[in-house]
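Final report, closing paragraph on structural work. Over the funding period we assembled a curated collection of sequence-structure pairs, and we close with a single example.
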Amino acid sequence: MPHPECLRLALNHFGRTARGLVISSTAAEVTAARQLDLPVIGYADSPAAERRLRKAGCDVIVDSLRPILDAARSLSPDTPT
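Its predicted structure, as stored:
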């Protein structure tokens, strides 16, 4: 399981008030994020993966990364599609 300390160090790199969001496809990463009270979007490519992510505590589960990529691109209009 990923250690939540890695996530904490990454957030602290950007400043004490940094906020984050984890996008994950594994229950272990969801667990680590939850230990730091970070919101989690889960990517599930099968019903079994969706069940694992839901059980781990994902806030939102998607079956395609397209909406996430589109949202990220909308934040930076200079990003090529």
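The longest helix spans residues 4-13. The first strand starts at residue 22 and ends at 24. We thank the funder for supporting this effort.
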